[in-house]
Amino acid sequence: MNTYLVLKWLHIISSVLMVGTGLGSAFYMFFANRSASVPAQAVVSRLVVRADWWFTTPTVILQPATGLALAHMAGWPLSTPWLAVSLLLFAFAGVCWLPVVWLQIRMAAMAGQAHRDAVPLPPRYARYQRYWELLGYPAFVAMVVVFWLMVNKPQLSF
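-> structure tokens emitted (158 positions)
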């Protein structure tokens, strides 16, 4: 197998892991938060943080590394419109994701403490949950568009 195909395989697998982990984590966190069950929120938020460290973080590093290498090997300049838009959307999703990670860590700590102390979650948890969702939606949409651009490579013009 040649280098290009190995990089392409790594790029595709890492994109699936990145978006799949994000979507799965968001699904469970969204519904655990709606359950109003502090034990469920404590477990799920702790596992969501773990999934981000184990899966999302490495793929966020691997994605641009393999993508840029593939573009270089294929002879696509970074100014190629579909590629430039993909990179901008990936960066936008990253700008949304960084505060989400911080929020998830804080939410997991609050939920864990509330569960250990057998008390309700503090009001700050609900505020963080809203911010978490408001940042997650546009990041997910951006990544869906990136997938579409990667697959279709449309002729865009600016």
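Residues 20 and 51 are 11 Å apart (CA to CA).
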